[in-house]
Amino acid sequence: MSGADGAADRTDPIFAALADPTRRGLLEAVATRGEATATELAAELPITRQAVAKHLAVLQDAGLVAARRAGRETRFAPTPAPLGDAIGWMTTLGGRWDARLAALAEVAARR
Hints:
By secondary structure, the protein is α+β, with helices and mostly antiparallel strands. The protein contains five helices and three strands, in the order H-H-E-H-H-E-E-H.
């Protein structure tokens, strides 16, 4: 179920990408480093470079990282804007729930 502005539709790939703990760890590693290659990231993980590359592709498709060619390497850097979209969606949803809970508390207090 998406909102009137389609925010949920825009955030679906973000939440899907972040649902995997390996991808969350990779995103954190890239954000900590500023940018990194799949080879650099795989050297610190118990998974293959190919697996890291596949996870990075999912993060890239969700807009969470951007790829840049540097000679023979592909370097990945974090792109924080999609996280802002997801946070905005969660904030809006949370505000709606807060309003509903406040109305429920008001009704309960009157009884």
